[in-house]
Amino acid sequence: MKPASLTSRCICLCMSLFLGGCIMSPLPRNTLLEPIFEQTTDGCTLAPDFNFSSCCRAHDAAYWRGGSCEDRRRADAELHSCIKEKGHPVLAGLYYLTVRATGSPRMPTPWRWGFGWPYGTGYSEACP
Predict the structure, then answer these.
(1) 13, part of any domain
(2) How far apart are CA 92 and CA 98, in angstroms?
(3) Cβ distance 128 to 42 under 8 Å?
(4) Residue 112 DSSP code
(5) Measuring CA to CA, which of 11, 35, 45, 74 is 20 to 30 A from 63?
(6) Under DSSP, is residue 30 helix (H, G, I), strand (E, B) or coil?
(7) Does any domain span residue 124?
(8) CA angle, 106 as apex, 27 and 8 as ends, to 5°?
(9) Does residue 96 belong to any structural domain of this protein?
(10) What is the pTM of this model?
(11) Segments forming the whole domain that contains residue 13
């Protein structure tokens, strides 16, 4: 296999995973109850917390609960603002890009959007 072909396939896979979370159709979700799994937080998953662990804990709470595409965008923007306000503008941008790229409800990770619900629960409404 040629290196360019492998690179192209990797790029296509990454883009499909990233975009898949944005166009995912909603799955049934009971909005009257809290998610079925207990809320957990580990601060800034797999990354240093420095003096902004409270920002990451609030972000974890939003991701646990899940919701709409707009709810996720707002939670990620709030994480960015909070880290920036704590004096880390470069890390704020890096963490923001990371959660936007890896936090889709389609990702089979423990930190995905809506991790308080069973895997495959998606956004609470269709994404614009």
Answers:
(1) yes
(2) 10
(3) no
(4) S
(5) 11
(6) coil
(7) no
(8) 140
(9) yes
(10) 0.76
(11) 3-102
